[in-house]
Specification:
This protein has one domain (14-332): Alpha-Beta Barrel (TIM Barrel). It is 33% helix and 16% strand. The chain has helices at residues 3-6, 19-27, 43-47, 57-62, 109-124, 135-141, 161-170, 184-188, 206-213, 220-231, 253-263, 294-308, 328-332, and strands spanning 31-33, 37-40, 69-73, 146-149, 174-179, 196-201, 237-244, 267-272, 311-316, 321-325. Strand 7 (237-244), helix 11 and strand 8 form a beta-alpha-beta unit.
């Protein structure tokens, strides 16, 4: 059966996601699309609709227009339970849902894209009445130009990723995909490249990885290592994303450098953990004090740069995120011309 033959039409609701979980996520601002997709207004999408409002690190580092970006996912489920993640992990809130095998049918890509755009417009509709909103930016925000498939869950759960990327691109929407780096077979099947592909780097070594990632599947670290080998050969812009938690994975700069040598990313984003959402769950055993300060993120980033040979390129103070580049040429061409 081909990809196209396997697709089904999008229903009016999301029956595969337990109602209780859906209600909790809806209260957090998620808008569901079909069986397994969702979109939520990013803080920076909201603030950047004001001319003097804050824009995100992707705006500073790569030139995206924050007010025209959708923060979304094509798959709610995930095979990791990372301690630093903001997502609601079902079992932590007493919900019985096998998210590894919850979906028998998958919605078609065009309906997902159209549904995400529709819900994004609903999410930002109220901003028009805010006297601080720049109406030109608000009108542009109703025509999304970028999508970050990073909201929650593992996007490569969705089995028709090639068609989904094409569906975004034919609407002139750039794609920024963030994966947890365990689904190596899905990566091997990727023939249509996103604008930028991220892999989350949860830890510098296997011991810390097992503590942080809390994988729901076997051989997660082994698959992650294999994933990096494939990732290194892809012909698109490739990025490592590190989320640092003091006292947990903010250690072993050389270990991170070894992973960088294996995955050969164009860029490395080093970001401080935020004590928000699901990360506050008692099951995670994390505290507010484990959020690193900007200067601590900068210092650790410099250690990684020294170990890896990457260049300290930029810093987005508000999100406590540092950008490293593989070389000066790559640093110089980090801003993308999205007006093409």
């Amino acid at each position: 059966m081909s990809d196209t033959q396997a697709l089904v039409q999008m229903p009016a609701s999301s029956p595969q996601v337990p109602d209780e979980l859906k209600k909790m996520m809806t209260r957090q601002g998620y808008h569901f699309v079909g069986r397994h997709s969702a979109v939520k207004t990013c803080t920076y999408t909201a603030s950047s609709m004001q001319l003097e409002g804050a824009t995100c690190y992707k705006h500073r580092f790569y030139g995206i227009r924050s007010w025209r970006c959708m923060q979304s996912t094509p798959a709610i489920g995930c095979n990791l339970s990372c301690s630093f993640c903001w997502r609601i992990i079902p079992e932590e809130v007493g919900i019985n849902w096998n998210e590894l095998n919850a979906l028998g049918k998958w919605d078609d890509p065009d309906s997902i894209v159209d549904g995400l755009i529709l819900e994004q417009r609903k999410l930002i509709s109220g901003f028009k009445e805010n006297p601080k909103t720049d109406l030109q930016r608000w009108r542009e925000a109703n025509d999304p130009a970028h999508v970050a498939l990073s909201l929650t869950g593992e996007p490569f759960f969705y089995p028709h990723m090639n068609i989904l990327i094409e569906a975004f691109h034919k609407r002139k929407i750039s794609t920024f995909i963030v994966t947890n780096g365990t689904m190596v077979n899905a990566l091997r099947k990727l023939t249509v490249m996103p604008t930028q592909l991220y892999v989350s780097i949860q830890a510098p070594n296997e011991e810390v990885y097992n503590i942080v990632a809390r994988a729901k599947t076997l051989n997660a670290w082994k698959n992650f290592q294999e994933f990096l080998k494939v990732f290194a050969e892809l012909k698109t812009r490739r990025v490592f994303r590190l989320t640092l938690v003091k006292g947990v994975n903010m250690t072993d700069a050389k270990g991170y450098a070894d992973l960088i040598a294996k995955g050969k990313p164009d860029y490395v984003e080093v970001k401080g953990f935020s004590f928000v959402g699901g990360a506050r769950s008692e099951d995670r055993h994390l505290t507010y004090e484990q959020m690193p300060r900007l200067e601590e993120v900068v210092e650790f980033s410099k250690q990684i740069a020294a170990e890896s040979g990457y260049l300290f390129t930029d810093c987005h103070d508000h999100s406590r995120t540092v950008l490293l580049s593989v070389n000066q040429e790559t640093a110089d061409r980090r801003i993308i011309n999205f007006e093409k």
